[in-house]
Amino acid sequence: MGWGTELWDQYDVIDKHTQSGLDLVEKYVKFVKERTEIEQTYAKLLRNLVKKYALKRGSKEEQECRFTNHQSFLDILNEMNDYAGQREVIAENMMLTICLELTKYLQELKQERKTYLSEAKKAQQSLESSYKQLDSSKKRFEKEWREAEKANLNAEKTDQDINATKADVEKARMLAHMRAHTAEECKNDYASQLQKYNKEQNQFYFSDIPQIFSKLQDMDERRIRKLAEGYVSFADTEKRVMPIIGKCLEGITKAGTNASAEKDSAVLIEQHKSGFERPGDVEFEDYSQGINRASSESSLGTPKGPMELLGKNKTKLWPFSKKSKTSAPEKSMPPVTEDFAHLPPEQRRKKLQQKMDDIGKELQKEMDQSEALEKMRDVYEKNPQMGDPGSLEPQISQTAHNMERLRGELQKYESWLMEAGGRGDTMRSSVNNNSHERFSDDEFDEEEPFAQCTALYNFEGSSEGTIPMQEGEVFAVVEDDKGDGWTRVQRANGDEGYVPTSYIKISPPM
């Protein structure tokens, strides 16, 4: 069953039906657009909410993030930010796969429908024009036939009239003959026009209109299928991001389970325990024995430990003492010193150890820089065309000075740490040992995997100490760039040498 055979006489119905289908596509596109606006607004509100509760740098809350319950809240904010991003993805995909695609397809359908309806109009106009010609020839045949009959009757009447002359009779017969001949021609023209019209009418109703209506049917069915795909895509677009959204929600759940009351209590203890011993019993002062006031005052300080360590700041002894609102903070707090002696013993040890770690890292950097400069000077001495060795002397001297200064500071903090009851000699030895271990090729090969690099360009490697390479060739990175622009690499066959760092792309070790 098809429109061309079953609905051959329902042009107006087909016209309205196809227009209604296009209107539905347009309505669906508007619906999806409004949905995308809702998603975008929702995502924007979520991002603003996350931003509102996010921590600011240097704030008090940022310092509290070492506690698991605070960090879990930050994790939740991050997951919500990712969740908002997925809502934006939904909006973007709906706009691309539904709105834009259907809008473009709708324009094509409108043009296609217009073309088919125009073809139907033209076919109808052609048939109407043929019918007018048929009607005109029919009326002409009818008129001429009446005139011929009239002329024939007049000729018979003249022939029977005794008063009519032979010339009158001949004239009447000639006129009747002419009229009959004209009527015959009109009859033949009418028959020809009728045959032509019937042929065109048959072509119109059995070929032209069925073909056009079948094309409109095919167009409308394609529209329905395309619209159905848009309906399915509406759900699939969100389904595709559901796994990611699920991971965001799982991340929020994990953040909740990561909050540990025991760990946070341990962190609080680790951060703030002073290391002081608890005060001993206060001795009884017997004034009846004549003990003077001075000796009694001195006896108040007999408990060893916290009273002596705290000095004048005796209010620290009482855990529930309140800060005075009238006194200035700088008067109530002890002055900050370089050796952190103003801190309780445990906190002082931590600060000193942290300071030593920082100095150790800085010293290691200087040692790396020093070795890189020495190697660069060695390369320049062997290959003068690559650079002047003397130009490196100021940097080498400055690096040596920095290393000496840092070693002095490290030794100073070590002594303070030992004074505070820590073990500082292990830090210095570990730094020194690391410096030897770092630059021992044999041990480096055993302990750490090599990174790989790929040559981006050809390099001749004509200078001493360098190694040639071809674009695409893969090497093992034996030694990173120390700031001189050269990286030491090794081939699979064991050949080693320096290549320009800018000529290679380094990949992490496998």
List keywords for this structure.
five-stranded antiparallel sheet; 5 strands; 13 helices; 510 residues; mainly alpha
Provide a compact summary of the structure.
This protein is mainly alpha-helical and 510 residues long. Helices cover 69% and strands 5% of the residues.
Itemize the secondary structure elements and their pairings.
Blueprint: H1 3-6, H2 11-53, H3 60-63, H4 68-160, H5 166-258, H6 261-272, H7 293-299, H8 306-310, H9 329-332, H10 345-382, H11 393-419, H12 425-438, H13 441-447, E1 451-455, E2 474-479, E3 486-490, E4 496-500, E5 504-507
Antiparallel strand pairs: 1-2, 1-5, 2-3, 3-4
Helix pairs in contact: 2-4, 2-5, 4-5, 10-11, 10-12
User: Quick one: overall form?
Assistant: elongated
Helix share, percent = 55-70%
Structural class: mainly alpha
Q: In percent terms, what proportion of residues is strand? A: under 5%
Low-pLDDT sequence parts: 291-317, 324-331, 424-431, 433-447
Give a written overview of the molecule:
InterPro entries: AH/BAR_dom_sf, F_BAR_dom, FCH_dom, HR1_CIP4_FNBP1L, HR1_rho-bd, HR1_TOCA, SH3-like_dom_sf, SH3_domain. Residues 427-446 are annotated as: Disordered. The chain is mainly alpha-helical. It is built from 13 helices and 5 strands. It has helices spanning 3-6, 11-53, 60-63, 68-160, 166-258, 261-272, 293-299, 306-310, 329-332, 345-382, 393-419, 425-438, 441-447, and strands at residues 451-455, 474-479, 486-490, 496-500, 504-507. Strands 4-3-2-1-5 form a 5-stranded antiparallel beta sheet, with no helix packed on it. A hairpin with a 5-residue loop joins strand 3 and strand 4 (496-500). Helix 10 packs antiparallel against helix 11 (393-419). The longest helix has 93 residues, at 68-160. It is elongated and about 190 Å long. The model is unreliable at 291-317, 324-331, 424-431 and 433-447 (pLDDT under 50).
